[in-house]
Specification:
Elements lengths: L5 E4 L6 E4 L1 H9 L10 H10 L20 E4 L6 E4 L12 H22 L1
Antiparallel strand pairs: 1-2, 3-4
């Protein structure tokens, strides 16, 4: 299929915009049959209006309150760790750097332990 640049008109602001060959190929690869009906700036504005780019799933579109973070001492390096849960003391807590290091080195170990329990 051969594509060529098309001039389309935005349904919101009625300004012309180009539906490029690359965009058309992208749409075709993903099975999207209809061309975009909004210009890039109106699409971006609509995406921002829909709270972060996703369509609401029936929830309120009001912005979320910031997550409460708790301070703890990292079990690995002894530095401060800010975590989104109340540390209980019966499990180790890691700062973000040590947590990532644990994930890189401990991924195989934890999955094999998980399998052996079942």
């Amino acid at each position: 299929m051969t594509f060529s640049d098309q001039t389309l008109y935005c349904r919101d602001c009625n300004s012309p915009f180009t539906f490029s060959v690359g965009e058309q190929e992208f749409f075709a690869q993903r099975g999207l049959n209809n061309p975009p009906s909004r210009c890039p700036s109106c699409r971006a504005a609509r995406k921002a209006q829909m709270s972060g780019g996703g369509y609401s799933s029936g929830r309120s579109s009001a912005p979320r309150e910031p997550r409460q973070m708790y301070s703890a001492t990292c079990s690995s390096c002894g530095g401060e760790a800010l975590v989104p849960f109340q540390p209980r003391g019966d499990r180790p807590v890691y700062c973000s750097d040590c947590y990532q290091a644990q994930g890189e080195h401990g991924a195989n170990r934890s999955s094999s332990n998980r399998r052996s329990r079942w």
